[in-house]
Amino acid sequence: MKGNGLPRAEVPAAFDAGAAAYDRLVGLNPGYHRDLRLSARRLVRPGHQGLRILDAGCGTGASTAALLAIAPDARVTAIDASGAMLARARAKSWPSTVEFRHTPVEEPPAGPFDAVFAAYLLRNVDDPDSTLRALRGLLRPGGQLALHEYSVRDSRRARWVWNAVCGAIVIPLGRVTTGDATLYRHLRRSVVAFDGVTELCARLSAAGFTDVRTGTMPGWSRGIVHTVLGTAP
């Protein structure tokens, strides 16, 4: 494992190994599902109906559920590179407007989409800039991208809280629950190495997005979890 987390090629297998316990572990995180819904609410504008949304990096479907909570009539295409995580998602009950596909974000389905939601995805790809440009290319003019992501580099307090929570809770609990803390050590290191919010906004602008803006979360994840939004011109 590198200092900034696992190589991209090893990330899907790490999620495969952690898939069985993943929902149970994130359920212990106060605010995890609430925060996803808040980012989804920031993405989906009031009054918009029948949207076609790409859920990029859907995992076990928590982000998909958040989107449907805000836009219940949306047509959602949910993709993930981890087959085991996707199997957990597919096993849940979904409306016929939801489709799951086993594919990495580097090989996305054809657009256009009205919106793209990417939760905890960008720090796990090899080339974030190319990924952002590709996602912009999938959007209709005026369509929006929402990144829901950990970002602590810009704040000393956020880094301290993140490292404390991971060291005292996330990694030990992951090890006890799954017998292997690889995924959770990757989580800690990849977040610490990832962009600050300022740099992340600059990436979106450089990738051609306009009206780039951000918002953080309430509770313990304030300043740690953020929504970063951009509009396709």
UniProtKB/TrEMBL annotation:
Pfam family, one: Ubie_methyltran
InterPro entries listed in its UniProt record: SAM-dependent_MTases_sf (IPR029063)
Keyword annotations: Methyltransferase, Transferase, Ubiquinone
UniProt keyword Methyltransferase, yes or no: yes
A biological process term (GO) from this entry: methylation
TM ranges: none
One Gene Ontology term of the molecular function aspect: methyltransferase activity
Protein name: Ubiquinone/menaquinone biosynthesis C-methylase UbiE
Source species of the chain: Amycolatopsis pretoriensis
